[in-house]
Amino acid sequence: MKLKHFIILLFISFLLYFTAAVFKIQHWPGASNLLMAAWIINILAIVGILYKLVTHPKIKNFLNW
Question: Which are the contacts of 10, defined by CB distance < 8 A and separation ≥ 6?
Fold first, then answer.
């Protein structure tokens, strides 16, 4: 996957967080499920972004500043 796909996943997880927060405030059912889905998508997106950064060929030049 490209980096833009992971950024899109991160954006989707933030939208799910916002939706789950509204569900929690309104005491609607399904808020916990939305929060769990947002957590999972957020973790996957962050791990993907970190993997892309670490495996980039110019990372050694970036880290040796």
Answer: 42, 45, 46, 49
Instruction: Answer for the pair 6, 52: CB distance below 8 angstroms, yes or no.
Output: yes
What average pLDDT does this structure show over 22-48? 96
CB-based contacts of 46, cutoff 8 Å, min separation 6: 10
27: left (phi over 0), alpha (psi -120 to 50) or beta: left
Residue 65 or residue 39, greater confidence: 39
Q: Is the dihedral of CA 12, 14, 20, 25 positive or negative?
A: negative
pLDDT at residue number 62: 67
pLDDT of residue 47: 96
Give the total residue count for the chain: 65
